[in-house]
Amino acid sequence: MGRFYKKAIVTALLVSALSTTAFAAPKDNTDYENIPPEAVIVTDFNSDIFKSSAFSNYDNEHQQYKLSKYDIINVSIVGFNDSLNKSNTMGRYGYTSSAINGSVNYNSTLAQTGFNDIVIGPDGYAQLPYAGSVKLAGLTVDEAKDLLTMKLGRYLKIPSMSVIVTSYGPRKVQVLGEVEKPGIIELAADDMNVLAAVTSAGWANKYGRIKKIQVIRIIDGVMYVKEANLKDYIEKHDIHQNIELKDGDILYIPRSNKIDLQDDIMPWISFYGLYKNITD
To answer: How far apart are CA 4 and CA 163, in angstroms?
Structure first.
Protein backbone atom coordinates (compact mmCIF):
# COMPACT_ATOMS: atom_id res chain seq x y z
CA MET A 1 0.00 0.00 0.00
CA GLY A 2 1.45 3.38 -0.99
CA ARG A 3 2.42 6.10 1.44
CA PHE A 4 -0.42 8.32 0.21
CA TYR A 5 -3.09 5.75 1.01
CA LYS A 6 -1.60 5.01 4.45
CA LYS A 7 -1.62 8.72 5.24
CA ALA A 8 -5.25 9.04 4.11
CA ILE A 9 -6.30 6.11 6.29
CA VAL A 10 -4.53 7.51 9.36
CA THR A 11 -6.08 10.93 8.78
CA ALA A 12 -9.57 9.41 8.49
CA LEU A 13 -9.10 7.46 11.73
CA LEU A 14 -7.96 10.58 13.57
CA VAL A 15 -10.95 12.60 12.34
CA SER A 16 -13.29 9.79 13.39
CA ALA A 17 -11.76 9.60 16.84
CA LEU A 18 -11.89 13.35 17.36
CA SER A 19 -15.52 13.53 16.22
CA THR A 20 -16.50 11.18 19.07
CA THR A 21 -14.41 12.96 21.69
CA ALA A 22 -13.31 16.57 21.47
CA PHE A 23 -15.81 17.57 18.77
CA ALA A 24 -18.70 15.50 20.08
CA ALA A 25 -21.87 17.26 21.27
CA PRO A 26 -21.70 18.07 25.00
CA LYS A 27 -23.49 15.71 27.38
CA ASP A 28 -27.03 16.86 27.91
CA ASN A 29 -28.06 14.47 30.67
CA THR A 30 -29.05 15.93 34.01
CA ASP A 31 -26.45 15.34 36.68
CA TYR A 32 -28.17 15.05 40.07
CA GLU A 33 -26.00 15.56 43.13
CA ASN A 34 -26.62 15.16 46.87
CA ILE A 35 -29.94 13.40 46.43
CA PRO A 36 -31.72 13.29 49.83
CA PRO A 37 -32.83 9.83 51.01
CA GLU A 38 -36.46 10.96 50.85
CA ALA A 39 -36.17 11.97 47.16
CA VAL A 40 -37.22 9.82 44.19
CA ILE A 41 -36.24 10.73 40.61
CA VAL A 42 -39.15 9.83 38.30
CA THR A 43 -38.23 9.07 34.68
CA ASP A 44 -41.40 7.47 33.34
CA PHE A 45 -43.97 9.51 31.46
CA ASN A 46 -47.55 9.37 32.73
CA SER A 47 -46.57 7.57 35.91
CA ASP A 48 -48.88 7.36 38.89
CA ILE A 49 -47.19 10.50 40.26
CA PHE A 50 -46.77 12.73 37.19
CA LYS A 51 -48.98 12.90 34.11
CA SER A 52 -48.98 14.95 30.94
CA SER A 53 -51.42 17.84 31.11
CA ALA A 54 -52.87 16.78 27.75
CA PHE A 55 -53.64 13.26 28.93
CA SER A 56 -54.94 14.55 32.24
CA ASN A 57 -57.34 16.94 30.50
CA TYR A 58 -58.60 14.06 28.38
CA ASP A 59 -59.13 11.95 31.50
CA ASN A 60 -60.89 14.84 33.26
CA GLU A 61 -63.40 15.08 30.41
CA HIS A 62 -64.47 11.56 31.28
CA GLN A 63 -64.46 12.10 35.03
CA GLN A 64 -66.32 14.43 37.33
CA TYR A 65 -64.57 17.36 38.91
CA LYS A 66 -63.35 16.77 42.45
CA LEU A 67 -63.91 19.49 45.01
CA SER A 68 -60.86 21.27 46.38
CA LYS A 69 -60.07 23.69 49.19
CA TYR A 70 -61.38 27.23 48.73
CA ASP A 71 -64.05 26.05 46.28
CA ILE A 72 -67.41 27.70 46.94
CA ILE A 73 -70.59 25.68 46.64
CA ASN A 74 -74.33 26.20 46.95
CA VAL A 75 -76.59 23.51 48.35
CA SER A 76 -80.24 23.60 47.33
CA ILE A 77 -82.90 21.42 48.93
CA VAL A 78 -86.29 21.08 47.28
CA GLY A 79 -89.09 22.31 49.55
CA PHE A 80 -87.23 25.13 51.28
CA ASN A 81 -87.87 28.79 50.61
CA ASP A 82 -85.17 29.93 48.20
CA SER A 83 -85.56 33.61 49.07
CA LEU A 84 -84.90 32.86 52.72
CA ASN A 85 -82.01 30.65 51.72
CA LYS A 86 -80.39 33.50 49.82
CA SER A 87 -80.95 36.01 52.61
CA ASN A 88 -78.43 34.35 54.91
CA THR A 89 -75.35 33.31 52.96
CA MET A 90 -72.53 31.32 54.46
CA GLY A 91 -69.39 33.06 55.66
CA ARG A 92 -65.76 32.00 55.58
CA TYR A 93 -65.31 28.22 55.55
CA GLY A 94 -69.04 27.57 55.63
CA TYR A 95 -70.27 29.50 58.67
CA THR A 96 -73.20 31.88 58.41
CA SER A 97 -72.84 35.40 59.72
CA SER A 98 -74.97 34.39 62.70
CA ALA A 99 -72.84 31.31 63.28
CA ILE A 100 -69.72 33.44 63.43
CA ASN A 101 -71.43 35.56 66.06
CA GLY A 102 -72.37 32.44 67.98
CA SER A 103 -76.11 32.75 67.51
CA VAL A 104 -77.12 29.92 65.17
CA ASN A 105 -80.54 28.53 66.01
CA TYR A 106 -80.37 24.85 65.03
CA ASN A 107 -84.10 24.48 65.70
CA SER A 108 -84.91 26.88 62.89
CA THR A 109 -85.48 25.76 59.32
CA LEU A 110 -82.46 24.93 57.21
CA ALA A 111 -83.31 27.73 54.81
CA GLN A 112 -83.13 30.27 57.61
CA THR A 113 -79.58 29.30 58.53
CA GLY A 114 -78.44 29.75 54.94
CA PHE A 115 -76.91 27.26 52.53
CA ASN A 116 -75.28 29.41 49.89
CA ASP A 117 -71.65 30.41 49.44
CA ILE A 118 -70.21 27.56 51.47
CA VAL A 119 -66.42 27.78 51.34
CA ILE A 120 -64.38 24.60 51.66
CA GLY A 121 -61.65 25.42 54.15
CA PRO A 122 -57.88 24.84 53.79
CA ASP A 123 -58.24 21.54 55.65
CA GLY A 124 -60.79 20.33 53.09
CA TYR A 125 -63.74 20.62 55.48
CA ALA A 126 -66.87 22.76 55.28
CA GLN A 127 -69.08 23.72 58.20
CA LEU A 128 -72.79 23.24 57.64
CA PRO A 129 -75.81 23.61 59.93
CA TYR A 130 -77.02 20.27 61.28
CA ALA A 131 -74.29 18.34 59.46
CA GLY A 132 -71.44 20.08 61.26
CA SER A 133 -67.90 19.68 59.92
CA VAL A 134 -67.89 17.64 56.71
CA LYS A 135 -64.88 16.83 54.56
CA LEU A 136 -65.77 17.62 50.97
CA ALA A 137 -62.37 18.12 49.32
CA GLY A 138 -61.52 15.18 47.09
CA LEU A 139 -65.15 14.25 46.47
CA THR A 140 -67.01 14.64 43.20
CA VAL A 141 -70.13 16.80 43.26
CA ASP A 142 -72.32 13.70 43.21
CA GLU A 143 -70.36 12.14 46.07
CA ALA A 144 -70.67 15.36 48.07
CA LYS A 145 -74.42 15.41 47.42
CA ASP A 146 -74.79 11.81 48.61
CA LEU A 147 -72.75 12.51 51.74
CA LEU A 148 -74.70 15.65 52.63
CA THR A 149 -77.99 13.89 51.96
CA MET A 150 -76.96 11.19 54.42
CA LYS A 151 -75.73 13.67 57.04
CA LEU A 152 -78.73 15.98 56.83
CA GLY A 153 -81.21 13.14 56.39
CA ARG A 154 -80.81 12.31 60.07
CA TYR A 155 -82.64 15.53 60.88
CA LEU A 156 -84.60 16.46 57.77
CA LYS A 157 -86.67 14.81 55.08
CA ILE A 158 -84.87 15.60 51.84
CA PRO A 159 -86.82 14.78 48.69
CA SER A 160 -84.08 16.15 46.43
CA MET A 161 -80.79 17.99 46.79
CA SER A 162 -78.38 19.65 44.38
CA VAL A 163 -74.80 20.78 44.95
CA ILE A 164 -73.44 23.44 42.59
CA VAL A 165 -69.88 24.78 42.42
CA THR A 166 -70.13 28.56 42.08
CA SER A 167 -66.40 29.35 42.29
CA TYR A 168 -63.26 27.27 41.92
CA GLY A 169 -60.53 27.97 44.46
CA PRO A 170 -57.07 29.03 43.25
CA ARG A 171 -54.16 26.60 43.31
CA LYS A 172 -50.70 27.67 44.44
CA VAL A 173 -47.32 26.54 43.11
CA GLN A 174 -43.83 27.88 43.66
CA VAL A 175 -41.52 28.67 40.73
CA LEU A 176 -37.84 28.95 41.69
CA GLY A 177 -34.49 29.43 40.03
CA GLU A 178 -33.75 31.26 36.80
CA VAL A 179 -37.06 32.98 36.04
CA GLU A 180 -37.92 36.66 35.84
CA LYS A 181 -40.36 36.64 38.77
CA PRO A 182 -39.59 33.73 41.12
CA GLY A 183 -41.98 33.07 43.95
CA ILE A 184 -45.40 31.68 44.78
CA ILE A 185 -48.02 32.07 42.09
CA GLU A 186 -51.72 31.28 41.86
CA LEU A 187 -53.12 29.34 38.93
CA ALA A 188 -56.68 28.63 37.92
CA ALA A 189 -57.83 25.03 38.04
CA ASP A 190 -57.69 24.84 34.23
CA ASP A 191 -54.12 26.20 34.05
CA MET A 192 -52.31 23.71 36.26
CA ASN A 193 -49.39 22.83 33.99
CA VAL A 194 -45.68 23.60 33.64
CA LEU A 195 -46.08 25.98 30.70
CA ALA A 196 -48.69 28.12 32.48
CA ALA A 197 -46.61 28.24 35.68
CA VAL A 198 -43.38 29.31 33.96
CA THR A 199 -45.29 31.86 31.87
CA SER A 200 -46.91 33.30 35.01
CA ALA A 201 -43.43 33.65 36.52
CA GLY A 202 -42.33 35.84 33.61
CA TRP A 203 -40.59 33.01 31.73
CA ALA A 204 -36.98 31.91 32.13
CA ASN A 205 -34.30 34.59 32.25
CA LYS A 206 -31.24 34.50 29.99
CA TYR A 207 -29.58 31.90 32.24
CA GLY A 208 -32.54 29.60 32.73
CA ARG A 209 -32.63 26.21 31.01
CA ILE A 210 -36.18 25.39 30.04
CA LYS A 211 -34.95 21.98 28.89
CA LYS A 212 -34.20 21.04 32.49
CA ILE A 213 -37.19 22.22 34.52
CA GLN A 214 -37.54 20.17 37.69
CA VAL A 215 -41.09 19.48 38.92
CA ILE A 216 -41.13 18.57 42.61
CA ARG A 217 -44.06 17.05 44.47
CA ILE A 218 -44.24 15.99 48.12
CA ILE A 219 -46.49 13.03 48.90
CA ASP A 220 -46.55 11.51 52.39
CA GLY A 221 -43.09 12.86 53.18
CA VAL A 222 -41.51 11.58 49.94
CA MET A 223 -40.10 14.10 47.44
CA TYR A 224 -40.75 13.08 43.84
CA VAL A 225 -38.79 14.86 41.09
CA LYS A 226 -39.64 14.81 37.37
CA GLU A 227 -37.87 16.68 34.60
CA ALA A 228 -39.87 18.69 32.04
CA ASN A 229 -38.41 19.89 28.73
CA LEU A 230 -40.43 22.89 27.60
CA LYS A 231 -38.11 23.43 24.64
CA ASP A 232 -39.18 20.06 23.22
CA TYR A 233 -42.80 20.82 24.06
CA ILE A 234 -42.71 24.09 22.11
CA GLU A 235 -40.46 23.12 19.20
CA LYS A 236 -41.16 19.40 18.81
CA HIS A 237 -44.73 19.35 20.14
CA ASP A 238 -43.84 16.65 22.66
CA ILE A 239 -46.98 16.79 24.78
CA HIS A 240 -45.45 14.59 27.48
CA GLN A 241 -43.25 17.50 28.58
CA ASN A 242 -46.04 19.82 29.73
CA ILE A 243 -46.67 18.06 33.02
CA GLU A 244 -49.88 18.54 34.97
CA LEU A 245 -49.31 20.32 38.28
CA LYS A 246 -50.95 19.86 41.66
CA ASP A 247 -51.57 22.40 44.39
CA GLY A 248 -48.33 22.83 46.34
CA ASP A 249 -45.94 21.69 43.59
CA ILE A 250 -42.53 23.33 43.20
CA LEU A 251 -40.80 24.11 39.89
CA TYR A 252 -37.07 24.73 39.74
CA ILE A 253 -35.42 26.17 36.60
CA PRO A 254 -31.63 25.59 36.76
CA ARG A 255 -28.67 27.25 35.05
CA SER A 256 -26.97 24.03 34.03
CA ASN A 257 -27.34 20.27 33.80
CA LYS A 258 -25.91 19.90 37.29
CA ILE A 259 -28.56 20.05 40.01
CA ASP A 260 -27.70 19.79 43.68
CA LEU A 261 -30.99 18.77 45.27
CA GLN A 262 -29.74 19.30 48.81
CA ASP A 263 -28.40 22.82 48.29
CA ASP A 264 -30.49 24.10 45.37
CA ILE A 265 -33.96 22.83 46.26
CA MET A 266 -34.31 21.51 49.81
CA PRO A 267 -34.05 24.95 51.53
CA TRP A 268 -36.90 26.24 49.36
CA ILE A 269 -39.05 23.22 50.15
CA SER A 270 -38.64 23.94 53.87
CA PHE A 271 -39.53 27.60 53.30
CA TYR A 272 -42.56 26.73 51.17
CA GLY A 273 -43.80 24.27 53.77
CA LEU A 274 -43.61 26.99 56.41
CA TYR A 275 -45.40 29.44 54.13
CA LYS A 276 -48.20 26.98 53.37
CA ASN A 277 -48.69 26.28 57.07
CA ILE A 278 -48.98 29.98 57.83
CA THR A 279 -51.26 30.92 54.91
CA ASP A 280 -53.46 27.83 55.12
So the answer is: 88
